[in-house]
Design brief:
Length: 191
């Protein structure tokens, strides 16, 4: 089973994540930020990843540390669960509409971290979730999972745009992590 349990405890946050890549989309998410919980639940459901996230932190300051550290731990969980990445498809992409919004994600689990994100938001927050944390969350996941991701979204409603991005990320990750064979998809022989 491709799974991982990863924890991170600092003076600002306490994060514990359990991830099963070969799951059914079951989730148990509690970060203290309602909209973030909703996004992680959508990610789990649409990626068919079983995901437990228990996160607490200095929300009295703002949501930055908790969202960043959750991204770090989620990225580490994917890296651990994928191991040497033998047999995975490696590449994944998805285009997901949500009403007037359309998100596109293409990614490569090839071992090099790079994020290109074309997304602008009109609101400072959706619920208690700071929209500027969208980029930072994905940067944290991408750096710690050693993923290259190109993503974009357009639309008029920030809730729709962010949700479409999380769902597109889920579908792209599902497609990239699926087992297609036995070898490593690289001319180098390793990822």
């Amino acid at each position: 089973m491709r799974s991982a349990e990863v924890s991170r405890k600092t003076g600002e946050t306490d994060i514990r994540i359990e991830l099963n890549i070969d799951g059914t989309g079951d989730s148990d998410i509690d970060t203290g930020i309602g909209f973030f919980d909703h996004m992680l639940t959508a990610f789990s459901k649409h990626g068919n990843f079983d995901l437990t996230v228990k996160a607490s932190g200095d929300l009295v300051v703002d949501d930055h540390h908790l969202i960043e550290d959750t991204g770090i731990v989620l990225g580490q969980a994917f890296a651990e669960a994928l191991g040497d990445k033998a047999g995975i498809a490696r590449f994944g992409e998805a285009r997901i509409p949500m009403d007037e919004a359309l998100a596109s994600v293409a990614l490569d689990l090839g071992g090099r971290s790079y994020l290109v994100l074309d997304a602008e938001f009109m609101s400072a927050k959706v619920g208690e979730f700071s929209t500027q944390m969208v980029r930072h969350f994905f940067e944290s996941v991408i750096q710690n999972s050693k993923t290259n991701m190109h993503a974009s979204v357009y639309g008029d409603n920030d809730h729709h745009k962010i949700e479409a991005l999380f769902k597109a990320f889920a579908y792209a990750m599902r497609r990239a992590t699926v087992i297609e064979g036995e070898g490593i998809k690289s001319t180098k022989g390793s990822l």
